[in-house]
């Protein structure tokens, strides 16, 4: 069974996603409904039968994997604002609060708490955030296993999720701060710099809002309408939204690269948007090399049954270097 809600669920109840045998779930559901958190508007318990076997915890695992990508996008947005544009934490918190109140990110929990984190002050007047070191250790100390399980599961199912993987590996790289500081002395990489050519600060903030999580609310109605969705990008509304935000994301990533910002998840998202809809990728070169050293075979362009064809071993080999 998946359980969400953090330590506050001890007082307010958790969100539960149980899975298993229907008869067993019917027996325990009254207890779970009593224990679960309640929707503040409807009073409906935050619990529902997910499916057979361990599907409840599987859904929770995927949820946590997606959360890693979302957390990284917000983290990178915060860094972009903090080092690139120079507002104080309270001003960044105000921006996050505005994002949560309107637009694509309206009512997004992680954006809501991002505003709280930015604004939290100590008794001496300083910001609590200044007391937080930059190392995320939960993946390395094994107290948080679901994100890495999600990435492993996506790989085993041949599903590309580079944003989530980039977010996880960003956290992993941050965790070993001791080694990081030694590497910093060895390679002397340039730190992020403040922007010198920013013409419209407000537009930059709004562009950053759009690229941070522009798909967050858009997918909910799509999933509600489709009982067995396969690829959300095939939906015309999702496609239009991705197209609308592509240029903005490209501009943000370009600026981040120019000023040495840390943007692994945002840049991975851009590259995924490019390659997931590419009609002729340079990966044909990879396929050729693999056929060269391992006779892995390949399909040919414009050949019926091969192009586009199934995800299966190709029909052709070439003797690149005669024996």
Automatic annotation (TrEMBL):
Keyword Transmembrane helix: no
InterPro entries: 6-PGluconate_DH-like_C_sf (IPR008927), 6PGD_dom2 (IPR013328), 6PGDH_C (IPR006114), 6PGDH_NADP-bd (IPR006115), NAD(P)-bd_dom_sf (IPR036291), Pgluconate_DH (IPR006183)
Region (Disordered): 1-20, 301-323
Compositional bias (Basic and acidic residues): 314-323
Listed GO MF terms: NADP binding; phosphogluconate dehydrogenase (decarboxylating) activity
EC top class, as a word: oxidoreductase
Boundaries of every 6-phosphogluconate dehydrogenase C-terminal domain copy: 56-321
GO biological process: D-gluconate metabolic process; pentose-phosphate shunt
Keyword Oxidoreductase carried by entry: yes
Gene3D superfamilies: 6-Phosphogluconate Dehydrogenase, domain 3, N-(1-d-carboxylethyl)-l-norvaline Dehydrogenase, domain 2, NAD(P)-binding Rossmann-like Domain
Pathways per UniProt: Carbohydrate degradation; pentose phosphate pathway; D-ribulose 5-phosphate from D-glucose 6-phosphate (oxidative stage): step 3/3
UniProt keywords, alphabetically: Gluconate utilization, Oxidoreductase, Pentose shunt
Pfam families in the cross-refs: 6PGD, NAD_binding_2
EC number: 1.1.1.44
Record-stated family: Belongs to the 6-phosphogluconate dehydrogenase family.
Protein name: phosphogluconate dehydrogenase (NADP(+)-dependent, decarboxylating)
Organism the protein comes from: Metarhizium humberi
């Amino acid at each position: 069974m998946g359980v969400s809600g953090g330590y506050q669920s001890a007082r307010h109840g958790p969100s539960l996603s149980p899975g298993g045998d229907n008869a067993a779930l019917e027996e325990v559901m009254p207890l779970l409904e009593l224990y679960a958190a309640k929707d503040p508007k409807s009073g409906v318990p935050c619990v529902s039968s997910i499916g057979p076997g361990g599907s409840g915890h599987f859904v929770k695992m995927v949820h946590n994997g997606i959360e890693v990508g979302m957390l990284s996008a917000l983290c990178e947005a915060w860094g972009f604002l903090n080092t690139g544009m120079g507002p104080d934490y309270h001003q960044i918190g105000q921006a996050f609060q505005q994002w949560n109140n309107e637009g694509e990110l309206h009512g997004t929990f992680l954006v809501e708490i991002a505003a709280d984190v930015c604004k939290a002050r100590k008794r001496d007047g300083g910001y609590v955030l200044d007391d937080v070191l930059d190392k995320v250790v939960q993946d390395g100390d094994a107290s948080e296993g679901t994100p890495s399980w999600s990435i492993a599961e996506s790989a085993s199912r041949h599903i590309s999720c580079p944003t989530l993987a980039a977010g996880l590996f960003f956290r992993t790289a941050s965790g070993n701060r001791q080694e990081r500081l030694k590497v910093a002395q060895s390679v002397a990489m340039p730190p992020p710099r403040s922007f010198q050519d920013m013409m419209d600060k407000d537009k930059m903030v709004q562009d950053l809002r759009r690229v941070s999580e522009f798909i967050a609310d858009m997918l909910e109605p799509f999933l509600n309408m489709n009982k067995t969705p396969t690829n959300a990008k095939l939906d015309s509304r999702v496609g239009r939204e991705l197209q609308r935000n592509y240029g903005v994301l490209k501009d943000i990533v370009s600026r981040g690269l120019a000023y040495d910002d840390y943007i692994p998840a945002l840049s991975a998202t851009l590259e995924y948007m490019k390659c997931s809809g590419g009609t002729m990728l340079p990966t044909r070169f990879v396929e050729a090399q693999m056929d060269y050293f391992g006779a892995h075979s390949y399909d040919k362009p414009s050949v019926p049954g091969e192009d586009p064809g199934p995800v299966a071993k190709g029909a052709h080999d070439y003797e690149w270097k005669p024996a």
